[in-house]
Amino acid sequence: MRQLVYTQPGRVEWQDAPDPQLADQGAALIAPLAVARCDLDAPMVMRGLFPGPYPVGHEVAGTVAAIGPGVTRHGPGDLVIVPYQISCGHCRPCHAGTFAACRTYMAPIGGSFGFGPMGGSHGGALADLLLVLSPAARRRRLLAWLPGRNGHGPRTRLGNPDHRRR
Fold first, then answer.
1. CA 29 to CA 74: how far, in whole Å?
2. Is 50 or 163 the better-scoring residue by pLDDT?
3. What element of type H or E holds 31?
4. Closest Cα partner for 63 from 44, 82, 49?
5. What's this model's pTM, rounded to 2 decimal places?
6. Which residues pair with 131 in a beta bridge?
């Protein structure tokens, strides 16, 4: 697969990387469709806020490409939003709703996509595939529901099963 990698201050480049593999029964692979830019992205890239190299991108919507057998809320083809914070859903901070303080995936700035070692080295969303750990374990949905593969849900442009034909 290809991924966008921050290499040094002021420089990012597309690089080849191995396809991520489903790490456990509750993991999912997401094919990103849209990645947003946040306020940290510019300082990260232009000033080298965190040491590189690392894959970038952390605010993402995409389609589910594959799921582990423990994932029951989503299936291949579902449109999802993936929160940038990575959490287990089982520890005390997760049960309190403070996902950035997750004890399982704690990193210097909290478990996050697109921040390299500072976020726990979980990969970046500006890639062909993104491995999402433990979506089935969270008390709240790790992958937010958008109209699914059968088109059920609100009738918005995104919710219209024929929206891709327009």
1. 11
2. 50
3. strand 28-36
4. 82
5. 0.78
6. 29
